[in-house]
Each structure stands twice: as structure tokens, then as C-alpha cells.
Amino acid sequence: ARQIFQWLYKGIYDYELMTDISKDLKNVLNENTYIENISCEKIMVSHEDETKKYLFRLSDGNIIESVYMKYKHGNSVCVSSQAGCRMGCSFCASTIGGLQRNLLASEMIDQVLKIQSDTGEKISNVVIMGSGEPFENYDEVLRFIRILHTKEGLNISLRNITVSTCGIIPRIIDFAYQMPQVTLAVSLHASNDETRNHIMPINRKYPLSQLMKACKEYIAITNKRITFEYALIEGVNDSEKDAKELALLVKDMLCHVNLISLNKVDESHLKGTNRQSAERFKNILEQHKINATIRRELGSDIDAACGQLRRRYNDWKN
Ligand code: SAH
């Protein structure tokens, strides 16, 4: 088992190439198992930075996307955990066609393996921030993380793996106990229930007060910093009042706020905040002693935001 395992995560897709395995065993494997092998349909390379976006086709024809980003601290892959998404966030392209299905751990691992092989670069960071809600596909995401981490797998440090959730409270607590070293990002995007209900329907099930309580519990259990993601949307969540309210909401928490100007999605009328207003928002947070960074937008020329590329797939095919 160990031999086969090692071959698989070296990126070998054919039992015949596993030289230290007997002919009999190869026959048994060929008759009873298959090796996941998603196919690369299209690669887009950003002219602005070295970001690459990949469109992959799964064996049942579903299309998913993944992104490769080069940072000073290492090479990062953003992985999809579902084909489509059912969370319905109003600013996100991934959810427009609804959920197709959960991905298997093997389909998540193969996104990383295929990108590693295409770029020739060792992947050191994985963020589960592509299409889908990872905590709706909890068990397979955990299997995926274990394979990423194990020495015979991709040998990636748990601290270099990030899972992002829109706020599925019971899973946040499960995750705190089961994967305390993995980094957790929570998509906040609003500092009050009224706005959050409007842009993130999940808030009606798990409202902010309960979500923040769960985040505090997560921090107490893991002693780890949470990343709050906040996409600035013009006229929706980017006012001075919003910034102050956000500062109060996360006050005294071990956390970091990642601000990003919303990437424009064709199907939505929502627009990103301009640089100046984003800076103003960040300054207000900092005045309240909240750690905040404005994220660089990588790959904006190649539609690298959540689910945007997959939406275009049918246009290209025709
Ligand atoms: N379902 C998970 C993970 C996938 S989305 C979650 O909600 O966290 C990864 C991040 O991209 C989330 O914070 C999501 O809200 C954000 N996002 C989605 N569409 C975006 C857009 N158009 N511009 C900026 N961020 C976006």
C-alpha cells in the first residue's frame, strides 16, 4: 500500500509504471480500481503577474477551476471543493448555476498534482477557496487535507493549508477539534445581519451573533488566528459606519481582516470599491487596532475570481 501511495502522489497515473509492484497485483488493481485523472481543458496565464487559471473536466463532464499563484513565501494553489455551489452569495459567480455535486478527495488532490506537473514547481500552500463550500463536503475535504499533509502524500505543512467557509457553524467547531493546525478563513463580508442576510443567504440560518460566538470558540480551542474575508462592495458594505461596526464586531479577537475589492462578476450589478475608499476602510479598522490588509488582486485579467472562468466555458466551446 505504501508503495502504491507513493507512486500516486508522485503523479503516476498508470499501474504499469509502478515498477516495484508485482504483475498479479497490477492485474488486481486494474480490474478493481481506477486512478483519478481529471483532464485539463484550458489554461489561462495572467499578463500582469504569474497567476495561472486552470479549467479541468471531471470524468462525468463537470467543469471545475483552480488557480496557481506565485508568492514570495511559496507557490499556492486555490482548489475547488464542489462543482458549483448552493450557498447563493449574491456577488459570487460560483453559485449562479447552483450545486452540481461534491468533489471527491481524489478530484481535489488531482487539481494540485496537475498544476504541480504543469508548472514544474513544488506546491507549498493550498487554499480551499475555489468554487464550493468546503464545509458542505466536510469528510472529503478532511481526507484531502490528510493526503496533502502526509509525508508520502504532498508533505505540505498543515499551517500552509487554508479552508474558507461562508460560516457553517457546527463544522467550524468540528474543524477546531479535528484540524486545529489548519488555517481557517471565514467569509464575513458584512458587519450586520441586515446587510449579510441580503448578500449571503446562509446568514439567515447562521446569523452573525452566533457565527462570531463560534469563531471565538474556534480561537479558544485552537489558539489560532482566524482570517476574516471582507470583499468591499461599493455602496453595500464599504461605508465608514460599516468599518466601525466591523471593528466592534471583531474587537479583542485573535484575527486578521483581509480586505479585497470585489471582483466584478458579469451577471451581477455589484461593483468593487475603489482603492481610495478601500484604504479609508482599512485605516478605520487600524485606528481601532484591528489587523487588516488590502489583498492584491492577482489574475484579474484572467477572471481568476471564484467561479468566473467556469461561467465562460460554454462561450468558448461554441
Ligand atoms: N464557500 C467558501 C469558499 C469559496 S469562496 C466561502 O464562502 O468562504 C472564496 C472567497 O471568495 C470567499 O470569501 C468568497 O466570498 C469570495 N468571493 C466570491 N466571489 C467574489 C468576488 N466576485 N470578488 C471577491 N471575492 C469573492
Structure report:
- With 318 residues, the chain is an alpha/beta fold.
- It is 36% helix and 20% strand.
- A 10-stranded mixed β-sheet has the order 1-2-3-4-7-8-9-10-11-12, sandwiched between helices. It has a two-stranded antiparallel ribbon with strand order 5-6.
- Helix 3 (105-119) crosses helix 4 (138-149), helix 5 packs parallel to helix 8 (208-222) and helix 9 (240-250) runs parallel beside helix 10 (275-287).
- The longest helix is centred in the middle third of the chain and has 15 residues, at 105-119.
- The chain starts with a helix and ends with a helix.
- The mean pLDDT is 93.
- The structure holds S-adenosyl-L-homocysteine (SAH).
- S-adenosyl-L-homocysteine is lined by residues 87, 89, 91-92, 129, 133, 164-166, 187, 229, 231, 260, 262-263, 265, 305-306.
